[in-house]
Amino acid sequence: MRKLNLALTAALSALAITACQQTPSIAADGAPFTITEVAKFDTPWAMTFLPNGDMLVTEKSGTMKWLSKGVSKDVAGVPKVDDNGQGSLGDILAAPDYATTGTVYLTFSEPGDGGNGAALARAKLVLDANPRLEGLTVIWRQAKMADTDFHYSQKLALSPDKKYLFVTAGERNKKTPSQDVKVNLGKVLRLTLDGKPAPGNPLAGKGGTSDEVWSYGHRNLYGLAFAPDGQLWENEMGPKGGDELNLIVAGKNYGWPVVSNGSGYDDADIPDHPTRPEFEAPKVWWNPSISPSSLIIYTGDKFPQWKGDAFIGALSGQALIRVDIDGAKATKADQWDMETRIRDVEQGPDGNIYLLEDGDGRLLKLSPKT
Questions:
Q1: How far apart are CA 277 and CA 330, in angstroms?
Q2: How far is CA 360 from CA 4, 6, 14, 19, 342, in A?
């Protein structure tokens, strides 16, 4: 695809937010969708839709935006964020009882004595003339580290039965903690809606925070989503190559740092997955790296041919990637060149696909060509 050419007037480019009706749709060359700019943000990190179609967007620096009918407002009451390195205000998710309680969950890179670490908080979202979070309470914390600003991960997914929160916890660029089930680094975790270890987790009773662990042997997990059949999919950044899309199975070890389909940043060899069949291998992997940033499993009606498929935003790959999913099988399908880093991908309640750019910070809507 040729570089998207969204020619804005000088007045519009000076605005922090651009309403979608002000920007014409653009037909992306070779892609079965058109692209419309909806809004613009300052280094956005993640987004979620509320039941009424409004959107919440987190920004790396620690700000949250409420986007409603093309107008964006700051949300007060967000926690203090350590935004050095890969630190950020992270993921955001409405609770199952949001319609009655206004409860939302959010992750963030929490500073503090002894270092920083990912944290999960719960708060009441009040959307009035002064939008704000009330009663924010941290309900889970990752092990703190004093000498690294990398691999927080901190992505969220709600289980299909709405009873549990799944959280990704990166290994903070320390490698070996991924294999230690007693620490919540390099793991997919299953928690209650109160942030406690969920009953029946497969490694409970092995000490430390093993009661939280659902799967382990992960590196930097930036995407987490359930398919319509209830299976959980996850993507993560490998080292130098070896980015992965995994089908997550309770209690399984995914092998990092013992195995990887990539190599070390110093070009040191890492054994590939087939050499150690006791570890779960990725269903799809990428060499060279695409740097997967996000993941959805599409369930809408706007693109019926893609129902049940995975969509992945790519940072270094500067692309939107579709992976065909058939039960437990996954096959690479389309890779659309966006010529910019894609930070997040989300499905809207209207069935369209939405992207957040990492650089220019645009929110883009992808609609079927007509």
A1: 19
A2: 12, 12, 13, 16, 10
Q: How many angstroms separate the Cα of 352 from the Cα of each of 49, 227, 311, 321?
A: 12, 17, 12, 15
Task: Kindly provide the b/e burial profile for residues 295-323, where b requires at least 16 CB atoms within 10 angstroms of the residue's own CB.
Answer: bbbbebebbeebeebbbbbbbebbbbbbb
Q: Give the contacts of 97 (CB within 8 A, at least 6 positions apart).
A: 103
Proportion of the chain in helix, strand, coil states, percent, rounded to 5 = 5, 45, 50
pLDDT (tens digit, 9 = 90+) per residue, 48-93?
A: 999 999 999 999 999 999 999 999 999 999 999 999 999 999 999 9
Which residue type sits at 57? Answer: V
**In the structure, what pLDDT confidence band is assigned to residue 114 with cuts at 50, 70 and 90?**
confident
Please, are residues 155 and 90 in contact by the beta-carbon 8 Å criterion? yes
pLDDT computed for residue 113 by the predictor: 86
Residue 311 near residue 322, CB atoms below 8 Å: yes
Q: Give the separation between CA 369 and CA 6, rounded to whole angstroms.
A: 17
Query: Any bridge partners for residue 36, and if so which?
Result: 365
Residue-wise over 333-342: b if at least 16 C-beta within 10 A, else e?
ebbbbbebbb
237: which 2 tokens? 């950044």
Reference 251, options 216, 199, 206, 200; nearest CA is: 216
Q: Which domains does the chain have, with CATH numbers?
A: 26-368 (2.120.10.30)
Give the whole-angstrom CA distance, residue 293 versus residue 176. Answer: 23
The pLDDT, as a whole number, for residue 19 is: 32
Indicate if 218 belongs to the active site: no
* Model pLDDT for residues 281-291, shown as the tens digit of each residue: 999 999 999 99
Tokens 């150690």 correspond to: 276
Q: pLDDT tens-digit profile of 171-181?
A: 999 999 999 99
Element housing 324 (H / E)? strand 319-326
Phi-psi region of 97 (alpha: psi -120 to 50; beta: other; left: phi over 0): alpha
**Catalytic option among 151, 172, 273, 362:** 151
Residue 359's pLDDT is 84
- Residue 160 preceded by cis peptide, ω within 30: no
